């Protein structure tokens, strides 16, 4: 995502100030030069049948118009050459140094005779290597930003057609100059193929097999830290399946613009088959110190140490535009931009930028002789049709650096085959920088996160019921929408400056539709999973998790009109209560894993045994006692039975804070609270806190307990005012846990904040998957939110950044551990792309569970139960149903389960949460067949019914019986 052209040009000037001359000829100024300078380079010229080191003769004070003669003296050798006159004037001239490559620093001296004068200059020439520089042509894929999405898509699809034509044109060029187009995102390819006729598809796949078109597996440039594990896996599904259908294999991913990525990508490497990851982030906008990872390739090992990705962060993807941008149209201003021919492919190319760039690598003791630059003409820009000719001409002139037009796959394979044993291994989370923008659409973010959880539950219910004809294609479409909501483009380049521009409005509606459509598709698939009849006055409840659980069940009013009495399938009375919302609540205990239970609603009063009680500003449920401050409504006492400490700081938990601009001295709080009793018990008790709130029309916070349930639920609802000025909204949770360590869940695992993060990763805010835990060696609390993923450790680490977002020194380099979690629910701090304001009602749910010493298994169970609550559906089919096998494993949970596409059993991913290997045993009524599997649902290795998972490891398996879908 480029910033608007004017802003980008300022960034370009800062980044590429070394580009003081971009072509062989300067301006037509008749003032002749007054002095000369020698500039050493790493390059080798092809000169007189040999390969000679090159220096640049620079003219200062004016250009060179007259003929001249250069006399060189170097390492005991002499040479001379004539420089012809130039009508337009030379700004520099490239000189070949006589003799063999030097092995130590050696001085070069020259005399230049021109205009009747003699000029002298000297420079030191240092040893250097022969370089191979891979150039990866692409157009950065923003799904929107520069124009409405359909216009953007048309540009990228046209680029595919153009690439095929350029591939044909250059197929007889030297191998290094033959064109290869990188589509960057499967979103482009998926749409291209959907709109192509059979002949066009044939031509496309033929071009892929010839290497003219290259596919990387990611569906888009996704905020991977914001995706669930299932989403992170599915972002590669379309690409890998398309490849398999056409007899090719994709093992690479490219991510442009977005700084940072989730460690979970390496955890799933064996599942997805992705081995190579090229990152080409933004040049400077909100990237913290991430640029420090540039050109430092490493094997990114998973938390288990058993899987790895070869990761390379290249120079920013904007290099091509920075060099050639002044000679091509401003594509931001063109409605239907087309590839542009300058007629001079070698002008505004890589000379002298590349020489300076490689010299800096030399200075940094870069250990390899190859590197990569991406080549894009801006966001959503037409292809550069002149690249093959520019590369061909370059290689005809220079022996080194040799340019190679490449794909991601080719570059990584060449690099790995050469340097495999020299590449370091690195582990840790490269915590993303750009996830803060998702809080500019808080309502839709919550919708999408919840839809993702429900979609996993729909797949699990399909597996539990052993239903035939699993609608895999419909699930794929829903997953695609959910994943694409986490694509990094949220809106237009002028979304903040001109929020009512029709294009801005249109682009947001397109983006918003990913979340809304994903939700609608999920609801339809969930309804399809449970359909099968209508049994009056009965409901079915599903546990879609791999562990036994207890929990609160809420039956909608329309499904519980028969009465308030609830009985299970054996006629036993179940504690229940009619809520003020009209819902009928009841509690279940010891609910088996992956199973369905039926309950009936009968005429009569609710039955109760245990009690939750509520008073004016306090409530308890036999496990927790909670007290609210009568003035603020914040929780000032949170105490668990059998625990001595009060876990709430004196300022109170769940406190609303509003930060206008980003100045901490301007922070504001909710107004005086009005506290009322909402649910009176005996099963469910809750207090409702109503307040005025800065930035909002109103604020309510409900604190709810259910009798006998070890969980605290908070329901915070903001009726937001639309405010265009910069702002942030938080709910702060200052816990009283001395000497705390903060841990939180990421895709496929969890990390210790700071300790498990890579250097140069984002530390100003974090993105959780399901939970955050604040613990010392004796006790702590697990906190989670299905709706609000962003949090800060402390109050408030995003304050003061606004004017310094492009200055690395203002970003945190270390996270001090402290027991304060600030849920960052809303902001509009971006200057582009994201929404300027949001208004209306948005609800944020939070859950808290106190505990003794930290347990990874307990924290993950808590997070899973909060994200995937018990599912209530109309009664259909048998009264009890369950998965056809049982899973017995300590410290292991199932991340996802669904029927196989081919109908042979079910597929599931298991995660070991502990550092040591864990044993898993599968049992069933019939003989089980178990295989290790992958994203393509291939049977890789046969497993016994008992097998081990490495510490913090992830595995995908297929489980079937001789009857493929037996219950």
From TrEMBL:
<dbReference type="InterPro" id="IPR011013">
    <property type="entry name" value="Gal_mutarotase_sf_dom"/>
</dbReference>
<dbReference type="InterPro" id="IPR011330">
    <property type="entry name" value="Glyco_hydro/deAcase_b/a-brl"/>
</dbReference>
<dbReference type="InterPro" id="IPR027291">
    <property type="entry name" value="Glyco_hydro_38_N_sf"/>
</dbReference>
<dbReference type="InterPro" id="IPR000602">
    <property type="entry name" value="Glyco_hydro_38_N"/>
</dbReference>
<dbReference type="Pfam" id="PF07748">
    <property type="entry name" value="Glyco_hydro_38C"/>
</dbReference>
<dbReference type="GO" id="GO:0004559">
    <property type="term" value="F:alpha-mannosidase activity"/>
</dbReference>
<feature type="signal peptide">
    <location>
        <begin position="1"/>
        <end position="26"/>
    </location>
</feature>
<dbReference type="InterPro" id="IPR011682">
    <property type="entry name" value="Glyco_hydro_38_C"/>
</dbReference>
<dbReference type="GO" id="GO:0006013">
    <property type="term" value="P:mannose metabolic process"/>
</dbReference>
<keyword id="KW-0378">Hydrolase</keyword>
<dbReference type="GO" id="GO:0009313">
    <property type="term" value="P:oligosaccharide catabolic process"/>
</dbReference>
<dbReference type="Pfam" id="PF01074">
    <property type="entry name" value="Glyco_hydro_38N"/>
</dbReference>
<dbReference type="GO" id="GO:0030246">
    <property type="term" value="F:carbohydrate binding"/>
</dbReference>
<protein>
    <submittedName>
        <fullName>Glycoside hydrolase</fullName>
    </submittedName>
</protein>
<keyword id="KW-0732">Signal</keyword>
<feature type="domain" description="Glycoside hydrolase family 38 N-terminal">
    <location>
        <begin position="132"/>
        <end position="423"/>
    </location>
</feature>
<feature type="domain" description="Glycosyl hydrolase family 38 C-terminal">
    <location>
        <begin position="619"/>
        <end position="782"/>
    </location>
</feature>
């Amino acid at each position: 995502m480029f910033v608007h052209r004017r802003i980008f040009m300022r960034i370009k000037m800062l980044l590429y100030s070394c580009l003081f001359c971009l072509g062989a000829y300067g301006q037509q100024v008749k003032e002749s030069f007054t002095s000369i300078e020698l500039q050493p380079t790493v390059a080798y010229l092809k000169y007189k049948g040999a390969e000679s080191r090159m220096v640049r003769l620079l003219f200062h004070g004016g250009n060179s118009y007259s003929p001249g003669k250069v006399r060189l003296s170097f390492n005991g050798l002499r040479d001379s050459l004539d420089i012809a006159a130039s009508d337009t004037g030379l700004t520099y001239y490239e000189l070949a140094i006589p003799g063999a490559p030097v092995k130590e620093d050696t001085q070069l001296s020259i005399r230049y005779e021109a205009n009747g004068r003699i000029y002298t200059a000297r420079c030191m020439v240092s040893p250097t290597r022969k370089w191979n520089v891979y150039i990866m042509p692409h157009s950065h894929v923003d799904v929107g930003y520069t124009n409405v999405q359909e216009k953007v898509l048309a540009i990228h699809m046209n680029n595919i057609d153009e690439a095929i034509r350029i591939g044909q044109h250059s197929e007889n060029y030297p191998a290094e100059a033959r064109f290869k187009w990188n589509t960057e995102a499967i979103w482009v390819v998926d749409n291209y193929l959907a709109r192509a006729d059979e002949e066009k598809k044939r031509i496309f796949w033929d071009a892929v097999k010839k290497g003219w078109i290259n596919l990387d597996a990611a569906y888009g440039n996704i905020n991977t830290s914001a995706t669930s594990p299932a989403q992170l896996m599915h972002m590669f599904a379309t690409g890998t399946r398309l490849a398999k259908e056409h007899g090719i294999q994709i093992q690479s991913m490219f991510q442009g613009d977005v700084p940072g990525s989730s460690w979970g990508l390496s955890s799933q490497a064996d599942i997805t088959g992705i081995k190579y990851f090229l990152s080409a982030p933004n040049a400077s906008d909100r990237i913290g110190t991430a640029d420090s990872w540039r050109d430092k390739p490493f094997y990114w090992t998973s938390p288990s140490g058993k899987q790895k990705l070869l990761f390379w962060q290249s120079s920013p993807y904007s290099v091509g535009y920075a060099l050639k941008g002044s000679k091509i149209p401003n594509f931001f201003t063109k409605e239907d931009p087309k590839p542009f021919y300058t007629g001079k492919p070698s002008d505004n190319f890589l000379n002298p930028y590349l020489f300076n760039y490689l010299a800096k690598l030399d200075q940094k003791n870069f250990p390899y002789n190859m590197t990569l630059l991406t080549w894009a003409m801006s966001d959503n820009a037409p292809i550069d049709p002149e690249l093959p000719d520019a590369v061909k001409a370059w290689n005809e002139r220079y022996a080194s650096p040799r340019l190679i037009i490449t794909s991601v796959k080719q570059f990584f394979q060449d690099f790995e085959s050469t340097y495999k044993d020299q590449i370091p291994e690195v582990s840790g989370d490269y915590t993303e920088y750009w996830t803060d923008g998702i809080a500019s659409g808080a309502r839709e973010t919550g919708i999408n996160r919840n839809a993702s959880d429900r979609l996993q539950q729909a797949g699990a219910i399909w597996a539990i019921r052993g239903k035939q004809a699993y609608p895999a294609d419909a699930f794929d479409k829903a997953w695609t929408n959910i994943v694409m909501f986490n694509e990094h483009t949220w809106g237009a380049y002028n979304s903040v400056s001109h929020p009512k521009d029709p294009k801005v409005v249109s682009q947001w509606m397109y983006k918003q539709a990913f979340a809304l459509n994903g939700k609608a598709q999920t609801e339809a698939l969930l309804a399809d999973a449970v359909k099968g009849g209508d049994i009056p006055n009965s409901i079915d409840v599903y546990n879609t998790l791999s562990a036994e659980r207890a929990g609160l069940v809420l039956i909608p009013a329309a499904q519980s009109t028969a009465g308030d009495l609830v009985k299970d399938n054996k006629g036993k009375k179940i504690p229940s209560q009619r809520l003020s919302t009209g819902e009928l609540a009841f509690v279940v205990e010891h609910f088996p894993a992956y199973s369905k239970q039926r309950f009936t609603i009968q005429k009569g009063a609710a039955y109760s045994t245990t009690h939750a009680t509520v008073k004016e500003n306090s409530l308890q449920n036999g496990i927790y006692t909670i007290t609210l401050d009568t003035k603020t409504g914040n929780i000032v006492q949170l105490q668990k039975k059998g625990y001595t400490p009060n876990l709430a700081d004196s300022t109170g938990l769940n406190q609303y804070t509003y930060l206008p601009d980003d100045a901490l001295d301007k922070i504001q709080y909710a107004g005086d609270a009005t506290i009322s009793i909402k649910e009176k018990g005996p099963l469910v008790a809750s207090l409702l806190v109503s307040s005025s709130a800065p930035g909002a029309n109103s604020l309510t916070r409900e604190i709810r307990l259910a009798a006998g349930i070890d969980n605290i639920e908070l329901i915070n609802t903001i009726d937001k005012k639309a405010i265009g000025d910069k702002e942030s909204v938080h709910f702060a949770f200052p816990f009283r846990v001395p000497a705390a360590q903060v841990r939180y869940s990421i895709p496929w695992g969890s990390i210790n904040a700071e300790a498990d993060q890579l250097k140069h990763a984002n530390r100003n805010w974090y993105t959780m998957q399901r939970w955050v835990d604040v613990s010392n060696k004796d006790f702590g609390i697990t906190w989670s939110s299905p709706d609000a993923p962003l949090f800060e450790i402390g109050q408030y680490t995003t304050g003061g950044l606004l004017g310094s977002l492009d200055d690395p020194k203002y970003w945190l380099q270390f996270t001090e551990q402290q027991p304060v979690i600030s849920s960052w629910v809303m902001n509009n701090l971006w200057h582009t792309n994201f929404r300027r304001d949001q208004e209306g009602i948005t609800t944020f749910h939070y859950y808290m569970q106190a505990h003794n010493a930290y347990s990874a298994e307990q924290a993950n169970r808590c997070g899973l139960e909060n994200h995937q609550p018990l599912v209530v559906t109309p009664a259909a089919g048998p009264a009890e149903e369950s998965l056809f096998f049982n899973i017995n494993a300590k410290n292991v949970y199932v991340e996802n389960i669904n029927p196989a596409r081919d109908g042979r059993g079910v597929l599931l991913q298991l995660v070991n949460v502990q550092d040591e290997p864990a044993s898993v045993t599968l049992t069933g009524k019939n003989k089980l067949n178990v295989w290790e599997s992958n994203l393509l649902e291939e049977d890789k290795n046969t497993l016994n019914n008992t097998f081990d998972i490495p510490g913090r490891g992830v595995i995908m398996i297929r489980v079937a019986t001789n009857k493929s879908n037996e219950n």
